[in-house]
Design a protein that fits this description.
Layout lengths: L2 H21 L8 H16 L19 H21 L1 H12 L6
The structure holds zinc ion.
Zinc ion binds next to α2.
């Protein structure tokens, strides 16, 4: 797996965790719904045609999520996005930088 994809996965997991904690009142583990979302997202990332050249998913020209999952992940981003800069400043910074990248297929 490309390190860029590994980092994306880490960022996503942190965001889903925050979301689940506050929205689904879980404590240490994700609820089954969020586990499903994370599993789905990881599978999409593994298949991403851009890999190292990947921009952030929001800006990606390829819409690879199925609509129901896209809605879910959008909700997670909307909720957790603003918290990331405080809770995970390093990941948030990388994520911002990744968003500046122009996607190119390898
Ligand atoms: Zn949850």
């Amino acid at each position: 797996m490309h390190p860029r994809i590994g980092r994306e996965e880490k960022t996503l997991l942190a965001m889903i965790r925050l979301y689940c904690l506050h929205k689904h009142f879980t404590t240490d583990k994700l609820c089954p719904d969020c586990v499903e979302l994370m599993t789905y997202a990881s599978a999409r990332l593994a298949q991403c045609p851009f890999q190292g050249e990947k921009t952030t998913c929001v800006k990606c020209p390829v819409h690879c999520y199925k609509p129901v999952m896209r809605d879910k992940v959008r909700d997670v981003m909307r909720f957790s996005g603003p918290c990331m800069i405080y809770r995970h400043p390093v990941l948030a910074l990388f994520h911002f930088a990744d968003g500046l990248r122009q996607p190119r297929k390898e």
